[in-house]
Amino acid sequence: MHEPAIPSLTGADPEVARLVQAEARRQFEKIRLIASENYVSTAVLEATGSVLTNKYSEGYAGRRYYEGQQVIDPVEELAVARAKTLFGVDHANVQPYSGSPANLAVYLAFLNPGDTVMGMALPAGGHLTHGWSVSATGKWFRSVQYGVAKETGVVDLDQVRDLARAERPKVIFCGGTAIPRTIDFPAFAEIANEVGAVLAADIAHIAGLVAGGAHPSPVGHAQVITTTTHKTLRGPRGAMILTDAEHAKAIDKAVFPGLQGGPHNHTTAAIAVALGEASEPSFGLYAHAVVQNARALAAALLDRGFDLVSGGTDNHLILADLTGKGIGGKPAAKALDRAGIEANYNTVPFDPRKPFDPSGVRLGTAAITTRGLTEDHMPQLAEWIDRAVRAADDEQALDRIAAEVADLMAGYPMPGWA
Ligand SMILES: Cc1ncc(COP(=O)(O)O)c(C=O)c1O
């Protein structure tokens, strides 16, 4: 049963309640390897579902356009203070509705339409909002994109430097959505400094690892740091922008009134709760366990002949090129889902296939680590993944794996399910 219980919803709208229960059960039974997902705590769920959703509060604490902010102001101040302490930054804006609007605020703060921005190309592991062609950021700005080296699968910093020197971007984004290796923030900062660009580090994927000391921090290197709050950081769906003192005002103005109206106060409260949790010593252990699990899963997959982009992982994320397994990423992801293992199909660098039917799958260990799985489980996970990919057309074989998966996961409690 969903936890907190949902008796009012069940009474008022059994149809929606049934779907919520079904999703909670699905999350309980599956091995969730989508690298951008996690399980939030029951405390975060409660804050998200609170009456704070009823309140409008355009503006910032002490400078609102609506009355009745006696409670909301301290809630936002708490979230801001916790973000500043946890990440060691001068300033935090906790209002962006999600990661994409947070990144858009960076454009609004530091660029005019048509100005040059540089980011990692989507097929190489960057995010849409780092200037990819189909995104507003690629349509309204002059975007130049860097990638990874073909031989290594990691960011080619020589290419980044050459491109920056030639194109003189006003903003450089580092970070991305399918990068299995450590981001070299000092190297990006050196390049950005040389060409006079603002360095924006998008740590959406790795924010929890940074907070927990399992990935180097961009603080002191990037003037602006954007992040979602719902991936490895294990908070609600939301985002934050962290800056040094010099860039704080421009970012605040860009978020409100530049892009958004009223902040989602229930989310702000839940972000504060998640940041409180992330400042506990146990979160550091969690962050390191996420990386250990990813390393162990990568090693077990390599043992089974999987081809991993960059040869492995330094963080929570693994990108497997399935070409050698004779199956595309999409049918593989569908087979895995039927086998109780949730992943997403993903482009790999230099992918000869189309983005909607690419060669790879992306796997992440943030959610399974929250459930309590350890390195010892990873050979078993790799065995299931291998079996499922080989038996992609055999529904009975996939169902047998799903039963084994559900059996294992039944022993690992999930916040949100009692
Ligand atoms: C690196 C990165 N930045 C930004 C985003 C956008 O976040 P959202 O989906 O919350 O808009 C994502 C989402 O996956 C991401 O991976």
TrEMBL record:
Q: Is the keyword Acyltransferase assigned to this protein?
A: no
Where does this protein act, in terms of pathway?
One-carbon metabolism; tetrahydrofolate interconversion; Amino-acid biosynthesis; glycine biosynthesis; glycine from L-serine: step 1/1
State whether keyword Aminoacyl-tRNA synthetase applies.
Answer: no
Binding sites annotated in the UniProt record for (6S)-5,6,7,8-tetrahydrofolate: 122, 126-128
Q: Which residues carry this modification: N6-(pyridoxal phosphate)lysine?
A: 231
**Residue intervals of the Serine hydroxymethyltransferase-like domain:** 11-385
Cofactors needed by this protein, per the record, are: pyridoxal 5'-phosphate
Q: Which SUPFAM superfamilies match?
A: PLP-dependent transferases
- NCBIfam families, per the entry: PRK00011.1
This protein is called Serine hydroxymethyltransferase
Q: Which organism is it from?
A: Saccharothrix carnea
